Structure prediction request, 404 residues.
Amino acid sequence: MFRYLRFFLGPLLFSTTSVLMFFGGVLLWLPAMALIAGVSLLDQIFPHDVEEKPYRFPWLMDLALYMSTPAALLLFFALFWVAGSGAQDALGAGAFLQSLTGIDVVAARNGTAWYHVVLMFVPMTLVATGIGGLAGHELTHRTARPFDLWLGRVTMALNWGIAFPIEHVYGHHAYVGTIKDPATAARGDSVYAHLPKAMKRTVVNAWEIEKARLAKRGKSFWSPSNVILRMAGVAATTTAFAFYCAGWRGVAFHLVVCVLTKVALEVLNYVEHYGIVRQPSQPVQPRHSWNCNHTVSGVLTYNLTRHSHHHADAQTPFQDLRAHAEQPSMPGGFITAYLTAWVPPLWRRAITPKLLEWDRTQADRAEFPLIRAANNASGWAELKQSVANSTSDTVAIPQGGLGY
Prediction:
């Protein structure tokens, strides 16, 4: 039974951190920070999860995903409530908690030092990404199930993630490993060089994809059928609710978290696809993304860590994804890789052996010219040791180089 219940831990843990935020002080950030540190540590302790036993009750897995939406709503409400000041007590939440605990949470909030509020944003961003972005990601891939698709898009729209569900499903999964993919970082690119390009191209691609879809149906981009505009309505409503709860301070809190969550998602893409190349004419295979079978990360990300199978067949439900233990994995586990990416020298040291291994054990010979061109363009001398650099094939670099 624990095989099923473990996927309910995410909504439960994230909801708990949200409730604790109402009590102010260190509780604004310490529980979320402890959760993130705990995941990274436990990933190193627990054995890798490579089990592929079928689940007899998939509806329980669906329920775990569906619970993520109310958990995300609670998290954002907690954020908006914390942004309040003075006698503000949106929806009477403070009075309700005081009746249960005897603690005057409104006074606790008003007496919270500013630095606790500042410290709140970083761990809360990862929590918001986990409970909203990753559950929404899984649901938006269920294009044959209208309710799931709608719920996933709504969940991601809570933090103004209105371009990602379109570009990710219909763009990224088609272009992964090629220069057309915003999420595939070029070898040698730091996360700071990659982020502006990825964020811009995601929006542009989503706009182009939705515009082309509507044109095929004979509809204007500004019609009610435009998914991006409908999601923007959800996002704007969320921002308006933030204003209702805490005025312009609430709006500012919401927009800051929206930006940081978008950055967090792109950094996750960065570590999942860094430096891998693919001939555009080749089908996407498990080897075209970094894999990860760390147990705790897998539970809290709905098996997004099993990224190799996810890209080979994006319609496979998360509980049915294969482990692909034979694939080279991202360095240190999901959260560890994410944190390492923020320090470019550490990331370079960690990812270089992985890239050389991928070139040697996973790359197709036809990809060697692309690999060699990417290695040469990277400026990383270590990559000159790649097996691809020992060949004499030539490749025509597309106009604009190997970037975007």
In short: The chain has one domain: 2-390.
